[in-house]
Amino acid sequence: MSMMHVNTTVNGDEVEFLCDSRETLLDALRDRLGQMGAKEGCGTGDCGACSVTLDGRLVCSCLVLAAEAEGRQVGTVEGMAEDGGTLHPLQRKFIEHAALQCGICTPGILVAAKALLEQNPDPSETEIRYWLAGNLCRCTGYDKIVRAVLDAAAEMREDA
Amino acid sequence: MMALDDRKTNFKYIGTRPDRPDGLDKVTGRARYGADIQAPGMLHGAIVRSPHAHARILKIDASKALALKGVKAVVTRADFPTGLTGEDWNLQENVMAGEKALYDGHAVAAVAASSALIARDAAKLVEVEYEPLPHVTDVDAAMRPDAPVIREGAADYSVPEGMHPNVVRRIEFGRGDMDAAFAEADEVLEATYRTEATHQGYIEPHACLAQLGADGKGELWCCTQGHWFVRRMCASVLGLDASQLRVTPSEIGGGFGGKTTIFIDPVALALSRKAGRPVKIVMSRSEVLRATGPTASASMDIKLGMKRDGTITAAQGTFRLQGGAFPGAPTAETMQCAFACYEIPAILEIGYDVITNRPKQAAYRAPGAPMGAFAAESAIDELCRRMGLDPLEVRLKNAVKEGSKSSYGPTYPRIGLVETLEAAKAHPHYSAPLGPNQGRGVASGYWFNWGGETSVSMAVSEDGTVQVSVGTPDIGGSRASMSLMAAEALGIPYENVRCNVVDTGALGVNEPTHGSRATYASGLATIEAAREIAGKLCQRAADKWGIDAEAVIWEDGCAKPSGPNAGDFPPMPIAEIAAEMGQTGGPISGHFEATPNGHGGSFGTHIVDIEVDPETGRTTVVRYTVVQDAGKAIHPAYVEGQFQGGAAQGIGWALNEEYIYGTDGRLQNPVFLDYRVPVASDLPMIDTVIVEVPNPGHPYGVRGVGETGITPPLPAIANAVAGATGVRLRQLPMTPPRILAAIQANG
After folding, report:
1. Fold assignment, B399-445+601-745
2. Other CB atoms within 10 Å distance of the CB of residue B505
3. Nearest-CA residue of chain B relative to A109?
4. Which of A133, B100, B246, B714 has CB 3.0 to 4.6 Å from B681, enough for a Cys bridge?
5. Which CATH code is given to the segment(s) A89-159?
6. Aldehyde oxidase/xanthine dehydrogenase a/b hammerhead domain location, by residue (chain B) (predicted)?
7. Of residues B203, B252, B685, nearest to A138 (C-beta)
8. Sorting pLDDT into bands at 50, 70 and 90, what band is B254?
9. Which CATH architecture has domain A4-79?
């Protein structure tokens, strides 16, 4: 079995790994690079637990082949807090609003919400709900998640 | 156990909303869930599953799989011990098929290999020869005389002769003169209601990492709601001594009852024993949907009598539930919860547990209760609409209260149904105007809650901070609740407590986080362990002061002299006592273990507004309010979260979610795209009202809150659809095609 050699950038760090041509970006992040923040909930792009950004664009990493990361910039939940550990406002607001119960969907939702706020710093409740419609949460009923995103957006606008 | 008059009511920490202790790990991606665990030398397992709903297994040939480079072991049922009986046999048969595959997705063999990809490839190379057999997946069809027999001899003593062998249990209870009571009614409704099987839909698929040696000693890391249950089940399925298997729970990515049993765990252990290396198995989503434990489906006949003033005179129900290929459908719970909210003088309920060619059902949030509530609360609403009665007034008129004899027998202690109904009636939602094509529905619901085997240890550290060791995995913020209760009982800051969920080697048996028991039972044990510690701290202070321990009280985190002859000493804080404890008698710890049974039942009442598009039959939930009795909300934000999450799951069950089996007996929708759980854009904000009628069985008044909330949404939404459209949907889910067909049939 011949493995592929991939050079990529994850959360600003240059990394390289060997992988099978069938492996997904999610597999490579988790099994080759030890970045366990992205989760596999379905493997078919329906749940969003594996959400990452690829050159800034929100993707399901279970639907991207690991080899496609060659030369690209990958962003995961592990890169959201600043160096030194200061949390992103979304991360803080998720804790403050009790916007997670089991927490398995949280990394994907945080990455997706960050991508939303970068495009639209002042989203309505409806815009948040449609943007996050690809990220399943089975615990919360989304109420506190939507409130946390609204609150984080408001704080980020004030600080901007 | 605490007496009622010891119950505390003025709280410093209870009822506040501090950050959860595991929050930081969970927002940074550091929290370690089932699939995040690795071990040196680890192999990966994959499972070979039956493509047939019902088939005899003639031959399993693994030679091609074993010839693949990297494959280290293959196991079949031949690698498991024989001679098991009862539920142990059911579990073993379910995790690895024996003579027959009993449902689409049933495990028939498993492979361990050096990578997950090789294991998956190898699983495809295992050749299984099947003889397909006739199958049945519908509960009513499975009871008919011509239905294929899934297994002879599965029925217990309760099933009368002459019934189909697929009927494995019959239950009957009731009281009163039914004929006379129905004769007193001004209106009598007779109708049949159906609910489809749904799945808990936890986002984290089952995952485990197992290591089992030839010496019978094992280690298992897994995502589970209850690792002692996993230990006991794996030990019996594999013929191990329970104490030789240590089970450590990972963080758990949702469970809702579905992670209280075993599927892949004993298979990974068997593979590890055979390969001599650790083996990790992670399920795919389609494996989760095909081969874990969805709910039962139900078919229910209801007859209900009501007077013109809203008094319910009589209720009769026949409840048929299928729970897959093994006994265990929650028929009793469906029956007991159906009319649990009402005082009804005459009642007769008959229930059947039926086996079919579907996966073995598992618990799902108030198992059985939503089905019964759908039937009973829909029927009540039908009579209210027929007679022009207010549905909340009718519920208030018949509501059970302290001292009422429940429909299923026991007399209720202090309960809070009336309070939830009054709060719902007073809520602005109930009197808000409705728009065109909109309807409003209400319904109440009940769950028993549970105590269960519980063991908690607590220890004081040298700096006066405290660690709590609990055995109930934290599925929705319970470590925050335990820390709050420990802080309250010891009078120390919340931040000075660290609560850990520990492995099976660290405590005696704990039942899982199920039955809405964790905050009640582990919480009660935490408070009692803290009180033991407080007593020991007082003793150390008394020794130092040279006075009797009886003359010392524990208050605000300090030992204080108390009483006329105690003397005048400054309060001695926990940190001061802890710093010296090595010299004053050694470590200070507390422990409490019991099977507490003072769990108070929880009632809830929901109000929902929906809008139906008359062109498409699509239903939109436009407003939702949950009112539920929490007894005492320890961390209100997570109580609200339970209310909201339960409502969301109930909405999914009512409108979208169902197991769809084809005529071939195979599951047609084993992916999230087709098994559609509610997404963010499907739901409005979910308003919550926490009613607090303290539970006399808990020192701080806690009732479990996790499960009741999934029960009212099913009927509440059906009642709202009736209001919006004038048609009554008696079958779930109320999908757009079904609603449209009902509207069109109604003209």
Report:
1. Aldehyde Oxidoreductase; domain 4 (3.30.365)
2. 12
3. B27
4. A133
5. 1.10.150.120
6. 28-134
7. B203
8. very high
9. Roll (3.10)
